[in-house]
User: Fold Solute carrier family 35 member F6 from Schistocephalus solidus.
Amino acid sequence: MCDVVGSTLQGIGLVYIDASVWQMLRGSIIVFVGILSKIFLRRRLWCFHWTGMMVTVFGLCLVGVASVFKPTTESLITSPAKAALGLLLVLLGSLATASQMIVEEIFLKKHGFHAMHVVGMEGFFGMFVMGFIILPSIHHIPGHDLNGSFENQLDALYQTFQDPVLLSTTILLVLSIAFFNYFGLAVTGSLSAVHRTLLDALRAVFVWCSSLFLFYAVSHRFGEPFDPAWGLIEIDGFCMLVMGTLIFNKILRLDWIPCCGDSYNSAPAIPEESVEVPGDSVTDDSSEKKPLLAGDAAAHSGTFGSVNDQVTSIQA
Assistant:
């Protein structure tokens, strides 16, 4: 359900903002994941975690301001109000996606599910909700589509199977989503949900470069132009997003800041696989999982501290 809600909100938001801005705003997931892991997984967030999240929020503000106020001559954005609506929808969608990652981490690490098992459950549940609830509902809601439907599903299926290009694109989309979900879960299971957001944030570079290439090399009907004024602010915002993610994951250290320097010494040196979930307790090392893509390799680690350290503290 989180995936359905998140994908829907982000898809609608994409209508009102550029693809590069949409991809950059997905960097907000690390903020939501950090806060939700604090609430539901009872993880301790140190000073550098909060600093990374604040830097990320500042970057989101720069990207949002640039997308709202930059010229819209060559863009599908029709007004600053609609651009702001798109930003809000994407952020709400990111919150739903972050919730999904937290739930996935609980299933993968606390309950020992395999990544393929979780992907299968998500796929079955998503197919059931979309096939038997959402799509039939919008088919019977009055609208301006064929036969007075809001979205005529029979007409959509007919058009898909009558156009080889559309059919092949649909099949490739399904396959790409399947592989993306599996490898995303593999990262979550081997590391943590926060590490997954680090790789996800870097996709904005490729999306923005692709948009610029399409606009200047293919046709002005595709992609987006680079605005010299607001585009630089957008670049600054993206750099802040990446910097916030690096600070959060202790890749970029801030030892010169007193509170952050002390937190580096206090925080566990080895990332923690999982912490106690409300209603559960860890009593032995059996909860440790192996890397999902490494066969019988040694047990992996997660985000904020070693499992052995945590077990000792709980038993004490």
